[in-house]
Amino acid sequence: MSYKIPLFDLNFDENEERAVVDVIRSKWISTGPKTAEFEVKFANMLGAGYAVALANCTVALHLALKLVGVESGDEVICPSLTFVATVNAIRYMEATPVFADVTSMSDLTISPQDIEAKITAKTKAIIVMHYGGFACDMDQIMAIAKKYNLKVVEDACHGPLSEYKGRKLGTIGDVGCFSFFSNKNISTGEGGMLITNSSEYYAKAKLLRSHGMTSMSFERAKGHSTEYDVIELGYNYRMDDIHAAIGIVQLDKIEEDLAKRAIHRKNYINKLSDISSIVIPFKDYTAFSSNYIMTIVLKDSESDKRNKVREALAEKGIQTSIHYPPAHRFSIYEKNFTELPLTDYVADNLITLPMYSKMTEESIDYIVASIKQVLCA
Ligand SMILES: *Cc1c(COP(=O)(O)O)cnc(C)c1O
């Protein structure tokens, strides 16, 4: 089905095309100078010490947990209202995900109170996810981590350039992870980035990204080294220069893209705020946000009603989504199931509305008018 207003649209033009062609013509298409340039540009943009470009964010999360020392049998506290990769990464380490609830209907980030309540002698780390590009309560979370000697990994996939008290998301915990999957704020097709201020984590991430080898083929091709040793059991988690070249172009556009999204969000909020039967999460949020997604939550509702609203909007040509089916209700997390009343309610009654820089004010008018019609019907 093709929608009049899609959920998302790529912010691509001939600049991305040219960047790809240039890399192909250079004949160095795997990890190389473009990847290194993308890393430096990304780290500088966020004020992070180091950045390591990777194949995607799922592997960034895996490496992050490895860097902070999560081991088999450890517990890692995480949200359930996230993309399942956040949680799967914990399982890659043979550790146990312990789900914590969201803060409230209007703050869909992980609850610091629930994090503290879920800490046991086995807890090793916390993964937070900055839902929609809106920051978790990092002061409280870092204080809890300090008190119990836990590591903090930030899944900042939704939040490039988002801020918390003047600091960029992803730079506050021990390691930050980003995704450049096609529908993210920065798109390269597949792609991810790990950032950290620790030189030790940085060195280890670079090793693990490429088989645990002490030098990369690009360095050897340049004649910088001819031999290598393998000193860790690593992976092939590399990004290549074709994706990195797209990423570099995307970084040139990100500020303008986010500025447009901020205007769209403001328009949405102004136009939606007289609907008494919905909650607009993060409505009064004032810090800079990447506005990855625009969500509403139906009040006094249940999933059937929400699904009917989504169907009615689809009939009007408006594509919507649900961020997210909660991880604790998936079959593979049956053994880790726990009651999360707020997450359950939100997951059953949330609707993700279209959000992308190229959308128009007219389309927002149409979406809001359609929601009013559907909810009053
Ligand atoms: C997209 C996303 C991921 C996974 O990223 P990939 O690059 O697709 O592996 C993980 N966590 C969150 C919150 C995401 O939105």
TrEMBL record:
<dbReference type="InterPro" id="IPR015424">
    <property type="entry name" value="PyrdxlP-dep_Trfase"/>
</dbReference>
<protein>
    <submittedName>
        <fullName>UDP-4-amino-4, 6-dideoxy-N-acetyl-beta-L-altrosami ne transaminase</fullName>
    </submittedName>
</protein>
<dbReference type="Pfam" id="PF01041">
    <property type="entry name" value="DegT_DnrJ_EryC1"/>
</dbReference>
<dbReference type="InterPro" id="IPR015421">
    <property type="entry name" value="PyrdxlP-dep_Trfase_major"/>
</dbReference>
<comment type="similarity">
    <text>Belongs to the DegT/DnrJ/EryC1 family.</text>
</comment>
<dbReference type="InterPro" id="IPR015422">
    <property type="entry name" value="PyrdxlP-dep_Trfase_small"/>
</dbReference>
<keyword id="KW-0663">Pyridoxal phosphate</keyword>
<dbReference type="InterPro" id="IPR000653">
    <property type="entry name" value="DegT/StrS_aminotransferase"/>
</dbReference>
